[in-house]
Amino acid sequence: MRIVLMKDTPPRLEAPEDFKQFSIALDERLRSSAIAALAPVAEPTSDAVTHAWVRPDAIRALSSMAGDPAWTEDFGKMCAYAESKGWTGPKGAIRAHIDLIPATHPVSPDDFRNAMRKFASGVCIVASGEGDDRRGMTVSAFTSVSAEPPMVLVCLNRSTSSHDPISTAPVFSVNILSGLQEDVALTFAGRTGLRGADRFDDQWTSSETGAPVLTTSHQTLVCTPISAQIAGTHTVLIGQVIATSDASEGPALMNYDGVIKATSAAPATLQ
Length: 271
Ligand SMILES: Cc1cc2nc3c(=O)[nH]c(=O)nc-3n(C[C@H](O)[C@H](O)[C@H](O)COP(=O)(O)O)c2cc1C
Description:
alpha+beta; Pnp Oxidase, Chain A; 6 helices; 18 strands; elongated
């Protein structure tokens, strides 16, 4: 396993199932502030910042497998092995090597955006709240995650006004737009000047669960949040699907190469 500490990103644990490796990857831009960067999980063993004492509780808190009894047992064995080898320090902290990771960005944000324009996607409105507290934004970063249980994810820019209310809501909806709903996409992308609850017109209703539902959508999924993980500029919000609407027929709205338009009416059927 490896603890990854990158600038402007919360600590994360890679490969928690790998008990044979144990190290810290530290963004080299954090070198001069290494003590503060390490603080959520560890403290340096010396001024040289080549090794750190990592708190086992911090690893448990970061591990995506922490609820798995087999992982908990194996992690306990790893801690015991480290102790038997003399690799433990204050309060059972485990010694880890620190690798400095170069902060090179060979792909600029514009290069990245241009590359992603070549990926055709659908367009949805992600929405939450009731009455005057309703908030919604246009999103194309939406994908299926799991069928059992049914889960989806959306990526929400943290700088948007809709981000905080939607990413902390107890329930949210994903309303997939039909080919006739370019105007809805523009409204919820802030292009018509409408903000907050003013974006919602009489095509919207409230689901039994409390999330706004676009009655004219191509398809709506209502979700409860499972996790919200910060990744760079965005939050990856994963939701479990608790209800779906009836689907409408006809073209969907597509986002491709910087343009939104209806898909052709007769797509090939995948088996
Ligand atoms: C076609 C299209 C797709 C978009 N996809 C996303 C997306 O996946 N994630 C995101 O955060 N913003 C996306 N946006 C931008 C947001 O819709 C826009 O920033 C919106 O105004 C944010 O909400 P706010 O006005 O409440 O701040 C998209 C915009 C358009 C037009």
